[in-house]
Design goal:
The protein is built from 14 helices and six strands. The longest helix is centred in the last third of the chain and has 30 residues. It is of the alpha+beta class. It folds into three domains: 108 residues, no CATH class; 79 residues, no CATH class; 106 residues, Chitinase A, domain 3. Helices cover 50% and strands 12% of the residues.
């Protein structure tokens, strides 16, 4: 019965892909995300040698003062400010104390801008495939932004009555199932190792006896004897787990325990489990006040999706659509 740690990710994990966020933050909602490190050019004897950054800066003067420069290219301070605003205060403080990860992202962004400047200087923006890709991307951005603007639900949607009705109709979806706080002692004993199984069974019987003794400390026993390193460090505690998340072989055992009771040894293919039911949380349906923000966002998203679909259908149905079957067949022939 494995339970993953629920610790907060370290800052390095949070900012590991900040190159993408940086690219988007530079242009607000209208920006396009880029990778946090440029791809290396393929080795080729005919490939042009990397040139120095182009004379012109890729940062617009309106972006304000630069926070980093590489030759003539730069990353504006406003871009980093926008990035930092997306992070929780605690993570900003950690980055402020140890800027190595942020420095790495800034360097990667400089490399990206230098790469773009080099490609521009060598006329890549004039290539047909680049022009078509840029045009397609621009059309997608314009289309999505415009469609969002014409399909936005009214500010007062949903009303209190609509929220209540949606809550009543979907109450089952908000119900939180009963969960069980289970501690365990695990003894490794694979089925194929008869000696290990025999020794583990003997040890498990002794541990169950000790765990059921007056004033027994199950957590101390788990820390000393359990061979599941993750839960042993927590005194065997696996936290609250809904029954369906337990492995099938242990569900019936847990359901049959009373609060505070220790199970008999449970043999499984990998080893033996000794379980203690520490606590139980009954199934619960949270009141509307606890889920109204989540429910409101879901209703607005659903309404906007419906409005967007209707708007697109209206555009098509407003005129006469003619599809040239012969041209379609010729298209298939052209790509054989």
């Amino acid at each position: 019965m494995n339970v993953s740690d629920k610790t907060m990710p370290r800052v390095l994990r949070v900012v590991g892909a900040l190159g993408v966020v940086l690219a988007a933050a530079a242009c607000g909602d209208k920006g396009s995300a880029q990778n946090d490190a440029p791809a290396k050019p393929a080795a080729s004897s005919s490939a042009p040698a990397p040139s120095k950054p182009a004379a012109q800066s890729t940062a617009a003067p309106a972006d304000g003062p630069a926070i980093a420069t590489l030759g003539a290219v730069s990353v504006p301070r406003s871009e980093i400010e926008n990035l930092l605003r997306t992070l929780p205060a605690a993570q900003r403080e950690q980055l402020k104390a140890d800027r190595s990860e942020l420095d790495r992202v800034i360097r990667a962004r400089l490399a990206e801008r230098a790469l773009v400047a080099e490609a521009n200087a060598q006329g890549w923006t004039e290539r047909e495939e680049i022009r078509l890709a840029v045009q397609a991307a621009q059309e997608q951005v314009v289309m999505r932004a415009y469609l969002d603007s014409v399909s936005q639900p009214a500010d007062d949607y949903p009303s209190e009555a609509e929220l209540q009705a949606a809550y009543d109709q979907n109450k089952d979806r908000f119900t939180q199932p009963a969960s069980y706080r289970v501690s365990q002692i695990y003894l490794a004993a694979p089925y194929g190792d008869a000696d290990a199984v025999a020794a583990a069974r003997k040890q498990a019987a002794d541990l169950v006896k000790r765990a059921n003794a007056p004033k027994a400390d199950f957590a101390a026993l788990a820390k000393e004897f359990s061979q599941d390193a993750n839960s042993a460090a927590r005194g065997g505690d696996n936290g609250f787990v809904p029954l369906p998340q337990l492995v099938p072989e242990l569900r019936g055992v847990v359901q049959g325990l009373k609060k505070g009771q220790v199970s008999a040894p449970v043999q499984m293919p990998g080893g033996i489990h000794i379980l203690k039911l520490v606590d139980v949380r009954d199934a619960r349906t949270p009141p509307l006040v606890e889920v109204q923000v989540q429910l409101r966002n879901a209703l607005r998203a659903q309404r906007q999706e419906q409005a967007a679909r209707a708007y697109l259908e209206g555009l098509v149905n407003a005129g006469t659509v003619s599809i040239d079957g012969k041209a379609v067949n010729e298209a298939f022939e052209a790509v054989k």
